[in-house]
Design goal:
The complex is a heterodimer of chains A (about 110) and B (about 110). By secondary structure, chain A is mostly beta strands. Chain A is built from no helices and eleven strands. In chain A, strands 2, 4, 5, 6, 9, 10 and 11 form a seven-stranded mixed beta sheet that branches. In chain A, β4 and β5 form a beta hairpin. Helices cover about 0% and strands about 55% of the residues of chain B. The N and C termini of chain B lie far apart (about 40 Å). Chains A and B meet through β4, β5, β9 and β10 of A and β4, β5, β9 and β10 of B.
């Protein structure tokens, strides 16, 4: 049973560009949450998707948007990239929201 | 507001017990979690405890919860060099389970 997978592993973008990150949840999970982890910090909650709808959102600007597909996979989109968006982006999946299992993350560098 | 605090560093000798402490502020948190993060990797769910429990044991791991003081601890028995990592405490911040993380405790195990 594959765990949570994320792609790409690493990404380098230029300030002002747009980026899309992808996540496939663990088999049997229907809820996907996205987190941003800056260097030396704990992960910060961005938003959570359930039944293809954004169910809950953290304190992130509208430049951060997402989508969940019928197969429960999810995308995170970030527009108008800033240097401060450089971070490890983590996807977590769960069935009830209780046990969240994390993927390996996508390391985004904005130059 | 919601906040989770942990000490940043802990150093122990191989074979000793490690105790990592955490305090949280949201008394309505239903579940409290411990995650492990190795360098360059995502987060691994170690264990979690329901808020109406005082203790949970899982092999070498023991979680203690003092709900009155909003204090959570993780004890690792017989600590090994492979336990060296960053350990994050997290509380569930809402009914759908968005997680609020501390900044992490870096555990160093000396042979």
């Amino acid at each position: 049973d594959a765990g949570v997978t994320q792609s790409p592993t690493h990404l380098i973008k230029t300030r002002g560009q747009q980026v899309t990150l992808r996540c496939s949840p663990k088999s049997g999970h229907d809820t996907v949450s996205w987190y941003q982890q800056a260097l030396g910090q704990g992960p910060q909650f961005i938003f959570q998707y359930y039944e293809e709808e954004e169910r809950q959102r953290g304190n992130f600007p509208d430049r951060f948007s997402g989508h969940q597909f019928p197969n429960y996979s999810s995308e995170l989109n970030v527009n108008a990239l800033l240097l401060g968006d450089s971070a490890l982006y983590l996807c977590a999946s769960s069935w009830t929201g209780r046990e969240q299992y994390f993927g390996p993350g996508t390391r985004l560098t904005v130059t | 507001g919601e906040d989770v605090e942990q000490s940043l560093f802990l150093s122990v000798r191989e074979g000793d017990s490690s105790v990592i402490n955490c305090t949280y502020t949201d008394s309505s948190s239903t579940y409290l979690y411990w995650y492990k993060q190795e360098p360059g990797a995502g987060l691994q769910l170690l264990t979690y405890i329901f808020s109406n429990m005082d203790m949970k044991q899982d092999q070498r791991l023991t979680v203690l919860l003092n709900k009155k003081d909003k204090h959570l601890s993780l004890r690792i028995a017989d600590t090994q060099t492979g336990d060296s990592a960053i350990y994050f405490c997290a509380e569930s911040g809402g009914s759908q389970g968005n997680l609020i993380f501390g900044k992490g405790t870096k555990l160093s195990v000396k042979p």
